[in-house]
Amino acid sequence: MALAKMSVAEVEQFLRGEFPQAFSGDDITIESADGQTCLLRQRYSERMLRPGGTVSGPTLMALADFAMYVVLLSAIGPIGLAVTTNLNINFLRKGQPGQDVLAEARLLKLGKRLAVGEVNLLSGTSPDPIAHVTSTYSIPNV
Fold first, then answer.
1. What is the pLDDT of residues 108-125, one digit of tens each?
2. Kind of pairing, strands 129-138 and 54-55?
3. pTM for the whole thing?
């Protein structure tokens, strides 16, 4: 795959301007993005929890989808209309309350019209994923 077409700062600027509803607060930070991988951190909040004290599925799915969007933008540049066409998630273990959630995304294949990637979601400093995601994005003709 090619080198990054957008830096972390450029991706953040693009998201704040084009997608502020998802990237306007300070709960998610992009720690790295290089055109092949990215690392996002969602700061812990009680809003993440579902009854029973575990991190909710919708929280994990949204973070994974956002991580795929970030790694894709870093690879292809500011193409805002790239959209998710498929997302599959396997919940592996309970996400612990009080811990940030990390999303490690990686592009597996980047084509002209489709991109396929995977995301491992981690709770705090544990090396064991709490969920594994595969996702496909459609890339519009530009």
1. 999 999 999 999 999 989
2. unpaired
3. 0.94
Q: What CATH homologous superfamily does 6-136 map to?
A: Hotdog Thioesterase (3.10.129.10)
List phi, psi (to 5°) of 76. -110, -15
Beta bridge partners of 65: none
At 133, which amino acid appears?
V
Does residue 106 contact residue 46 with C-beta atoms inside 8 Å? no
Q: Which two tokens stand for residue 99?
A: 């811990």
Q: Is the dihedral of CA 135, 138, 74, 22 positive or negative?
A: negative
Q: Which residue has the tokens 């594994």?
A: 132
Among residues 2, 132, 142, 140, which one has the least CA distance to residue 68? 132
Instruction: List, for residues 32-84, the tens digit of each pLDDT value.
Output: 999 999 999 999 999 999 998 899 999 999 999 999 999 999 999 999 899 99
Q: Is the pLDDT of residue 100 over 80?
A: yes
